[in-house]
Amino acid sequence: MDLVLKRYWLVKSEPDEFSIDDLQAQPDQTEHWDGVRNHQARNFMRDDMKVGDQVFFYHSNTKIPGIVGIAEVCREGYTDHTAFDPDDKHYDPKSDPDKPRWIMVDVKYVRHMTHTISLTELKDSAALEGCPLTRRGNRLSVMPIEPAHWTTILEMEA
DNA sequence: GCCAACGTTGGC
DNA sequence: GCCAACGTTGGC
Length: 158
Prior knowledge:
By secondary structure, the protein is of the alpha+beta class. The chain has four helices and six strands; from the N terminus they run E-H-E-H-E-E-E-H-E-H.
């Protein structure tokens, strides 16, 4: 067995587009995380996200933005086919099927948080200082979470 | 390669 | 709806 440290992540979604409830409602509670069109976020999915990694599910652009649940990676990076579909919202005419530039992973629902850990609470936590999420002006839709921060956030649930 | 203009994200 | 913070694009 590989002795690999489990990694932790956070992914953002607008609940109007795709919420934690939507993920739970999938037939196998699994969905591909398509539509990421940012290179840094893409690189995380392509290079670093491994099956079994734990993922915070974050709702953005909503009344109370914050962490609403947990998912886990169940398939590692592969071509995001939506980039080739002219009818798709995230169509990228410059993406060549022979040389795909966009990548997605599959995530599986694990559970809801007992309550939303709001962005306000996250910002107020001294232990989370320096976390990419609470950094000003952060727009990354996929970001790594340090193990210590993961634990801190879980403790905020209680 | 610089940088202004423009588009998007996302909190408020 | 506003606007700050970025990322991307395109002229030069």
